[in-house]
Amino acid sequence: MFRRTILLFNLRSNLLHQRNQSTDVGFIGIGNMGARMATNMIQKGLKLKVFDVVPNAAKSVAGATVCSSPKEAAQGCKVVITMLPDGGIVKETLEGKNGIMEGIDKNGLYVDCSTIDSSVAQDLYKTAKSNGFRFLDAPVSGGVTGAQAATLTFMVGGDKADLDFVEPILLKAGARVVHCGEPGAGQIAKVCNNLLLAASMTAVSEAMNLGIKMGLDAKVLTSIINSSTGRCWSSETYNPVPGLMPNVPSSNGYKGGFMMKLTAKDLALAQNTALRCGAPLPITAVVHQIYRVMMTQGYGDKDFSSTYEFFKGAK
Length: 315
Ligand code: NAD
Hints:
Oligomer: single chain
Order of helices and strands: HEHEHEHEHHEHEEHEHEHHHHHH
CATH architecture of the largest domain: 3-Layer(aba) Sandwich
Bound molecules: nicotinamide-adenine-dinucleotide
C-alpha cells in the first residue's frame, strides 16, 4: 500500500513537472541557416519548438517539436528566435495573426537573427518595450559553413542584461557573441561586414576568372592567393571556383549557401544605412549593380559565389 502511494506520487509529480517544464527556444525560419542553428542547439541539449511556412523545412530538425504557427512556437519558451529572409517577413511574423506577439510570455525575450534594416530593428525594440516583452537584434556572420560548424559570430544590439541572459543559448549555435551597442547596432555591424564580404567575393571571382582564362591552373592560382596579400575568407574558405574545395556551394552547383538575392538585399540595406549618415559606398554601389544584373539572369536563388560563373560567361 505504502509502495503504491509512493509510485502514484512519483507519477503525479513527473506529469506535473513535464507540464510545467518550459521549452528553451521557439525557433522560426528553418532555412539554410536556421535548420543548422536549430539542429546544433538540439544536439547540445536544448529543447526546441520550431515553425516554418514550409512544413517539410520545420520537420527537418530532428528532435524538435513542430508547430503550426509562430504563436504556438513562442508559447512557453524562454527565448524566441527568428531567422527569416527580410524585415517585412520578420514584422509580419511578430505582429501578424497568430504571430509571436500573441504567444510570447510576459517579459519574454525575442531575438531576431535575420539580417534586416537597423531602423526596423529599432522599431521592433520599441514594439517589444510597449507590449511587455524584450527584444535583441542579433544577426550572424559565418555563412552556412559557420552555421553547420556552430562557429557563427552573433552581433547584438539592445540591452546588455538581455544579452547576458541569452548568451549561453546563442553559444550553442556560434562561437562568439559581441555586444555592439544600442538597439539596431548589431544590424549596422552586420551590413558593414557584408558589404566587405560581397566586394571580396566579387574581386576573388574576377581574379580567378582572369587567371584561369589566361591559362593558369585554378589550384595553383588559389594556393598563391592564399599565401599572398590577396588572401581572404572568399578565397580561402568559400572559393567560388567549382571543384577546389569540398562542401562549399561552388562545388555543389552553387546550391545552398547564401542566396544571391539575400546578398543583394544586404547591399541595399547598406546603401539605406549610408544614406542616414552620408557615408560614401562607391564599391558597394558597383557590386550591388552586378548582383542586380545577375538576378535578372536567373542567379537570384544561387549562392552569391556564382559571380565566378557569371564572369566566366557559362550561362
Ligand atoms: P532561407 O531562405 O534559406 O531561409 C529562410 C526560411 O524562412 C525559409 O525556410 C522560409 O520558408 C522561411 N520563411 C519565410 N517566410 C516565413 C514566414 N512568414 N514564417 C515562417 N518561416 C518563413 O534563408 P537563409 O539563408 O537561412 O537566411 C536567413 C536570414 O539569415 C536572412 O535574413 C539572411 O540574410 C541571413 N543570413 C544568411 C546567411 C547565409 O549564408 N545563408 C548568412 C548570414 C545571415
